[in-house]
């Protein structure tokens, strides 16, 4: 038996075998409340079958465990417990899951391949943007940005991917000022914006670094599309134009597309 100094009366202590008066009273109060709840038809735990079936129906409509946990505002482990055959569930958990409509997951909960998001964050780091400075723009905690940049996630939320694409478009032409970010990117072999084109989201695409290798802190140069169009009309190849202008071949390709768009608009 525990000494009076370190003894805290409770039902848990009673269940461990303590028969102190205070622990017996704690157990009595708990059982009295439990009987009252049962008399009122209020169960402390519900059978989990209906909730588990609802989760399975959501899976059938394309939801993932992460999406369900976000929509219900529950921990992943709670949803996993239902999948694993947990017998009972709390009323609050049951309500949270059953309130999710059986539809396709909404766009703000939909998960997409993380490849493009990872590459964009790494590319911005390579030209001098620290993860801490990017986090507020991406509306993420810096630790989450770090995990994404390290490739720890195969998928990210669609809203995160869209936001990252927008921020990348805004920042990738202007070098950042954080040398530590550049050094970190160089150490881990991260490629800057010049290495990617429209295929940045393609998991099978490889960075193009054979020509015009990007220097740390170098952002894609803003090439005049008219100059590229003129050199193209003179019969120069993409590689020859890149060599003459002093840029990456992908930059020439982008400038040529802009020239074509301007010609159509005119």
From TrEMBL:
Superkingdom to which the source organism belongs: Bacteria
Swiss-Prot/TrEMBL keywords: DNA-binding
The keyword DNA-binding is annotated on this UniProt entry: yes
Location of region: Disordered: 173-227, 240-266
A Pfam family: HTH_23
UniProt key word Manganese: no
UniProt xrefs under InterPro entries: Cro/C1-type_HTH, WH-like_DNA-bd_sf
Compositional bias per record (Basic residues), positions renumbered to this chain: 181-190
HTH cro/C1-type domain location: 60-109
Molecular function GO terms recorded: DNA binding
Name of the molecule in the record: DNA-binding NarL/FixJ family response regulator
Organism of this sequence: Streptomyces spectabilis
